[in-house]
Amino acid sequence: MNFLTLAAKNLLRRRGRTLLTFLGVAIAITVLVSLLSLNSGYEKELNKEVNSLGVHILAVPKGCPYEAASLVMHGGVIPDYLSAFDLENISNIKGIDLATPMLMHQFIGKDAMSGEDVPYVVFGIKIDETKRLKSWWKVEGRYFDDNETGVMLVGRSLAEEQNYSIGTVMLSGPFKNFTIVGILEQTGDQDDQFHFVSLAEAQRVFNKKNKITTIAVKVKDVGKIAAVSEQLEKIPDIQVVTMTQIMGTIMNLAGSARSLLLTVIAIALIISAFGIINTLLMSVNERTREFGMMKAIGASGMDIAKIVLTETIFLTFIGGIIGTLVAIVGSNLIEGFVKGMLPYSPKGSFVSLSPELVVFALVFSVILGFLCGLYPAFKSSRLTPMEAIRSGAD
Amino acid sequence: MSEIIEAKNLTKIYRRGREEIYALKDVDFLVNNGEFVSIIGPSGSGKTVLLNVLGCLDTPTKGSLRLNGIETSGLKEKDLVRLRQDNIGFVFQQFYLIPTLTARENIELPLLFSRKNGNRSRIDEILERVDLGNRSEHLPGQLSGGEMQRVAIGRALINDPEIILADEPTGNLDSGTSKKIFDLFRELNNHGLTLVVVTHSPELARQAHKMYTLSDGQIVRCEDLACRRFKYTLHIL
User: I need a surface site. Which of A133, A394, B28, B118 has the fewest CB within 10 A?
Assistant: First the structure.
């Protein structure tokens, strides 16, 4: 027999109480592990999403630049427009490799599966310039020409969902009678969900002659993004957003939300810790006579402290294991919850559970147990055998 | 015979506010090696306090106590723990067995603290000695009162102590079981173990070699029963 067997057997004495304490620790560790795993994954996923735009700077109509950036990334209607004049001004700035106009618009179409009306996003683009921005694009079928009419490209996921194939003719919506000439190969980002037509066609269909919503800018030298954006800002009526700014701001906003969540978790952990301390004190008080007996049969104060600490650490360690397992299994559920709380969420899954994090969680649960057990252990070890035996005397 | 317990002028005072309560008052107490001593007296007479002081579970306010030749006054807690481990086995009225441990594990418990090597055969030997060979894997809840007390006695024996101190060991048992426990004590004593037993039962107390009677924290009588039994035997002869 050793201290661990003694601790394990003792925890079986009050099964209900032990189970509740396990649960308390497990819940706290689950939330902690999930949040930390989401944290590192979030940054990685956001980076991927921003980079997949292939753009260094976005020029958008004046307004909230981050809302606009978010709309460009996920699709939506930017309520204001830039003009060809703005594009010309931008193109003249030194250091710019490429400035391509885009008209992004939403339209309502019928979903092939459910038959219901759902919103879709279409991008009006200049195909050659866009191909330069998104050098990774590959197409099944072919790209359209900028002056070709009645043709479109679609993203891979969209094509699969709507049963589109090369040659499919759209039957309804603003693009009725348009033929799909190409399907983009899976990009793993938001482009998989979009329709693409030539800029001229988009302007014609939506009756936005010479209007554009965004100008995507690629600079020649990445080191000069700041200098170029400074030049761009001098143009009236346009808002300049660099990808670094977007990343920084989103990370800041997410950081605030994360701090809030961390605070909630810290409070949950503290409450859980007090719960454990309370349980232990109760258990220690109940067993005062037993500890007195142990001292009488040769246990030192240190031995008694060791018994209490072993029990606590055992309790929190098992709770930690359960919590980590639940976090691994249930992280998708928690991701859904956290996504709702963040100001900007990348589309893909951002759970990233590393072995280091699992080790950290287990070490943390041991430390939690040690800290919670200190006071009860100290209290019980200080009892003189007489006090202990007498305190419970019948 | 050498003295294994030698207490002189033991006084234990408890304070309740300004009031001083003498639990023990100038008690002289001698136990020879291999002796069987009983202590009787009414409730509150200080029997348990005396036993606890003798077992180094409590410190006297005044007086000296030598255990197995070692002066205990002034010893640090660490040394007292070692002294208890090496010399003393305790048996309590309420048994104080750990309910989640089997009879065998309860007997084994002191080895966890003394770091002595408790091999299986030693535990088996103790189990046989207290007549629990066939009940070793039972939990305390599955044992009778007498069996539980025998487990407690086994636990007191595992460290091979010089002295067993028993506080009302039959207080919770019926008379038949009590007699069996005292028979076990006598048998252990016959093998050379020193025994000091506090009891309420004069009948059982008279089975010892020496019987101390305590009243109001003082020893009011010390009877040498062995000597009397010897004289009685001579008289009959």
Answer: A394
Residues found in chain B: 237
pTM listed for this prediction: 0.67
B3 to chain A, minimum CA–CA distance in Å?
22
Residue in B207, B195, B187, B193 with CA at minimum distance from that of residue B129: B187
Mutate: best of A283, A294, A295, A297, partner B, most B CBs <10 A:
A297
Q: Which positions 326-385 of A are in contact with B (Cβ < 8 Å)?
A: 384-385
Q: What is the ipTM of this complex?
A: 0.84
Question: pLDDT, tens digit, for every residue of A155-171?
Answer: 998 999 888 999 999 88
Question: What integer pLDDT is reported at residue A264 of this predicted model?
Answer: 78
Domain parsing of chain A, residue ranges: 3-50+250-393, 54-242
Q: Which residues of chain B does A283 touch, with a Cβ-Cβ cutoff of 8 Å?
A: none
Nearest CB neighbour to A298, from listed B78, B84, B96: B84
Q: List pLDDT tens digits, range A231-259.
A: 888 887 787 877 777 777 777 777 777 78
Alpha helices in chain A (DSSP H): 3-11, 15-51, 65-74, 84-91, 127-133, 156-162, 199-205, 225-233, 243-286, 288-296, 301-341, 355-382, 385-391
Distance CA A119, CA A116 (A): 10
Name the closest residue on chain B to residue A290, using Cα atoms.
B96
End-to-end Cα separation, chain B, in angstroms:
27
Range A346-377 burial, b when 16+ CB lie within 10 A, else e? bbeebbbbeeebbeebbebbbebbeebbbebb
In the chain, the amino acid numbered B131 is D
